[in-house]
Design brief:
306 residues; alpha/beta; five-stranded mixed beta sheet; 11 helices
Length: 306
């Protein structure tokens, strides 16, 4: 009987050890498989965001390129891409604790419900475009530097004129405020994934008289360039700064901290400089670096390591 008990005990011990060894081969040394938290990554449903994670060069915009670089390194999260309209982005950031989005302008109203990273990328700020007019803007509407003194005053001078404005986006605090001063009958809002392209076509077709847009988004032909006027708006900041933004939650705070850590490394790379160089002239890059040195003296966001 004792022999039988010994045999049974030996068999059970052997089976237990075999099972334990097999289990050990599947589990990390820590003893458990960490569960990655879900991160909902919001993508505006527009052409340049198609196959975002497959992009390997800044072929659309510097912001899209940097977004790809950051998202591809968020390995601690289970990233779920969610394509939504621009108006749904605010809904998700307000109502879900684990949503993030790129290429956002940092303004006070958004800071109430979302958190922001350090700069993602830089743009030359919005300009006022005018096409195929018999005369340039009248002198009383311009200051000594040739800048538009006030957008509102343009429509006091041209009461029947129309300006094209992309719907559902922010132009930055200053220009958002200027737009509120324009009478509604003078504004043609355009939404949708191709809103800026559509507005640009309307300008060339003379269906609107003015267009407020980022220079990077305006792509005229050589013939159109000859008839296209571009004005800086007095008081507007020279650059629009894009940021990553996440829901205002403990989870969002953690993701922003991780993104900032990644951005700190990217700022110092030739890659980051070259991504901007594709969309800036040499002089514009020099001006941008001078601006950053003056306004962010303790930070180094854009370095030429040549």
């Amino acid at each position: 009987m004792r022999v039988l008990h010994f045999v049974m005990f030996s068999i059970l011990t052997f089976c237990f050890l075999e099972h334990s060894n097999a289990f050990a081969e599947q589990v990390p040394e820590s003893g458990f498989q960490p569960v990655r938290e879900k991160l909902i990554w919001l993508l505006e449903d527009k052409k340049e965001n198609i196959d975002l994670l497959a992009k390997v060069s800044p072929d659309t915009s510097v912001a899209t390129y940097i977004e790809n670089k950051i998202v591809s390194q968020l390995n601690n999260y289970d990233v779920e891409i969610n394509r939504v309209s621009v108006k749904r982005i605010d809904y998700f950031l307000k109502n879900t604790p684990n949503s993030c989005v790129a290429n956002r302008v940092k303004i006070k109203t958004r800071e109430k419900y979302s958190l922001f990273s350090t700069p993602q990328s830089f743009y030359i700020t919005h300009k006022l475009f005018r096409f195929k007019q018999n005369q340039s803007l009248p002198t009383p509407l311009l200051n000594e530097y040739g800048e538009v003194i006030s957008i509102k005053e343009i429509f006091q001078y041209f009461p029947d004129a129309k300006i094209g404005i992309a719907d559902g986006v922010s132009f930055g605090g200053f220009l958002d405020g200027e737009i509120t001063k324009i009478a509604p009958q003078n504004i043609h809002y355009r939404g949708g994934s191709n809103r800026v392209t559509a507005l640009e076509a309307m300008l060339y077709g003379q269906r609107i008289d003015f267009l407020l847009a980022l220079p990077i988004d305006i792509v005229p032909t050589n013939e159109q360039k000859l008839l296209l006027e571009k004005y800086t708006i007095a008081g507007a900041p020279p650059y629009l700064i894009a940021h990553f933004s996440c829901s205002k939650s403990d989870f969002g705070k953690k993701v922003i901290a991780d993104i900032n850590h990644l951005l700190t490394s990217i700022y110092q790379t030739e890659d980051y400089y070259q991504a901007h160089k594709r969309w800036f002239t040499e002089q514009e890059l020099i001006d941008l670096q001078h601006y950053l040195h003056e306004n962010y003296a303790n930070k180094e966001y854009l370095n030429n390591n040549d």
